[in-house]
What does this fold into?
Amino acid sequence: MPDSLQISRPGSSPLLPTIHSPEDMNNLSIPELLLLAEECRQEVINLVAENGGHFASTLGVVELTVALHHVYDSPRDKIVWDVGHQAYVHKILTGRKDRMHTNRQYGGLSGFPKIAESPHDAFGTGHASTSISAAAGIAAARDLAGTGEKVIAVIGDGSMTGGMAFEAMNHLGDLKSDVLVILNDNQMAISPSTGGLKTHLINITLNKTYNRTRKFIWNSISLLNNEFGDAAKNAVRKLEDGFKAAFTPGAFFEALGLRYFGPIDGHNMEQLVRALREIQQLPHPKLLHVVTTKGKGFKPAELNQSKWHAHSGGFDTVTGKTLAPAGKPQPPKYQEVFGEALVELALKDLRITAITAAMPSGTSLDLFQKALPKRFYDVGIAEGHAVTFAAGQATKGFIPVCAIYSSFLQRAYDQLIHDVAQQNLHVVFAIDRAGLVGEDGPTHHGSFDLSYLHAVPNLTIMAPANEQELRDMLHTALYDIRGPVAIRYPRGNGTGIALRKSFTPIEAGKGELVRKGSAIALLAAGPLLSLALEVADELAKEGINASVANMRFLKPLDTLLTEQLAESSTHIAVIEENSIIGGMGSAVIDHLNEKRMHLPVLKIGLPDRFITHGSMNDLYRETGMTTENVLQRIREFYNGNNV
It folds into this structure.
């Protein structure tokens, strides 16, 4: 790669159509890189306006992405994107721009980096705080193999709040491997970042004395690289180290063993390219602090970064105004019903607290935050800490409600078992996004919570069939059950059922016989109760009289209702939006076997594999969870054929 940053380019035709791989960017000048960045930014705006997707995070790292692919040699050099929702420009520049219109669509590109999709995706991601660990592992393997490629981890300040990132930096400093950590500091995750690290980073960016002196030292080092020998350069570097130790919070990273550089403007292409080239020569762990604006270049996203974190599409690419007709009003989302009910109850009960792991808007706990800020806690992207923090509150007689997405709660499984369930502490887990979630795909599907929670002693697990049951179950979890309680509910809009202002307690471990039949019994929990009822209607047309049960609880299972249905039916089918392994179907079979009640039981659930991304309708068709597919399986099962 040439040393000069100023290579002229004749003409003014668009650059992006000429970029088919990062290699095509090697000889671009700074003005050309800036032009390419603006073309990429507009490409992302047009893409998300049409198809939806993650938005503001990608817009914030456009210049950084262009600079990275200009300086480094992907796929030989390995770039690991934390979370990966900000990697759209990375995909555009690495040979996938002609397929970006399929992004997050069934059969199309993933919305996150995916090893199987491209050799430029060095590590598959979707959850936060994993990039530095992965990069350290890649670098350690490189050192053993002696292959010499560069390794870069790009992590946001929100992801840096996760404990795994600190564990990785601590280890990386001990390994002393050549890894560059780029800290993308926009003071945001999905919602504004919280915690001491945020204060640290703000102190760095606002310290004018430090920034002015740092710029002088950096310019001196660059001059010495060309004019003087090693002794002079070392003297200036010692001055830099001493200054950082005395005046800047960046010394925190240095204490972990990562040499700190920055902060620099993440939208200044010349600064980015220069910094990356100089840092590229250093053979030890280092951290480059880059300050960016989430939503950069699209004014509506800059003004409301949380709202524009992701978008479903259908907006004007200049004003951001919705283009599609409003249509008829939609029922409230399950998360909104939960958030409103929790505030309603907490206003009357000083013991109730609310805890989230950097997802106040995603879980609708922002309603609680606004109404009762002193009892609201956003712990950052740190689910394990959130759960044990809740356990600590429970020991003092408070009733903490910990709202976490199903796929994110996986990261706190040890804390749930060891710190909550083993001590039988009264913590309520509001498990959002249970079941399939659509376009976000396998890293975000809540496919496993019934299975991984099923084995935990002392834990009560329930699933509401509609919004009213969610309200009633929340009240029941808070006041009628001791020990830990989990309520799992799906992403998206509810059924539209009319909501009562009052709460009706639900007896723990008791389901409800919704329809009585004599042939086959359909057992369901959660929103799939409506599917079971639709199937029963179709079976009735064929002369098959089906019972339908809203089980409500996985644990404790309503064993009495299960046994009654087993005695009055010839077959049982269990329908659940959870992995086929270890969920409610397994619980029903285990109980019937224990009671020596032998009759055919069909488990209908999500297959034992990771489900791809796509619309909910596409995913239901793929997994056989449509009314037609379930009806066909039950028909064949009832008639004694293979299913």
